[in-house]
Structure formats: C-alpha cells, structure tokens
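Standup notes
- DV: blocked on the single-chain target, sequence here:
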Amino acid sequence: MRHSILRSNQPKEASKYPKDLEQNTFHLGAFHDNTLISIASFFDEKIDKLEIESQYRLRGMATLPEWRGKGAGSLIIKEAESILQQRNVDVLWCNARTSAAGYYDRLGFNQVGEVFDLPPIGPHVISYKKIEKL
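- DV (later): unblocked, structure below
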C-alpha cells in the first residue's frame, strides 16, 4: 500500500524505510472484512525543530482511496496515541504533504516551520501533536 498510494512513481525499494525493522518501531493497520484499508508506521525518531525530548515519527500513512474520509486513518492515529502514552512519548510528528496538512490539522496536529520540498514527492510541512499523559 505504501508503494501504490504514496510512491507509485518511484521504485518499490523507495517504500521501505530504514527504521522499519527497529525494535521500537510499530506498524498499525485498519481492516474492513479482512481487507487492509489503511496503514501507518511509527518510529522512535527526533527532529531538531521540536525541542522536546521524547518524540516519535509517523511515516507512510496511507488509506485506500475508496475508504478515505471514513475514519480509518483517525482510528490508527488514536491507537498510536494510546501506544505512545504507554511509552511516555511527548510528541508525534511527521513530514506532512501539504495536500494532507488539513487532515492532520483536523486530527489535532500543529505545523512548525516553513513548507519544504521532498523530491520527487513534493511540498511538505512538519506537523506535530503533543501526546496527552496518562
């Protein structure tokens, strides 16, 4: 799904992330009738723009086109927040495509910094969300 939705114009290898198999990484998916309809990966990774000690990065979030707007991605983020609370993580961040920035805003993310380009994907902005403590 990463390749077909997020990186179809790139080689399949571009859909594999360096931290995919690290111990603290986790991957979530939403299913409907045993069909995977939405995915996301979460990495123990910091960005300097956020002066917060404990950070996780969201990458590779994708939902099948026919399932967008029906809450699958929101459920994944909610589950991730629960996992991150248990791990005492302070903030979740991502490089959000500008075309998806409104989606992240609706999920309670904030933007920091200027729009930047990630060739060959396009314009992005850093979005982050503070994780509520238990």
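- Follow-up: The two ends are 33 Å apart (CA to CA).
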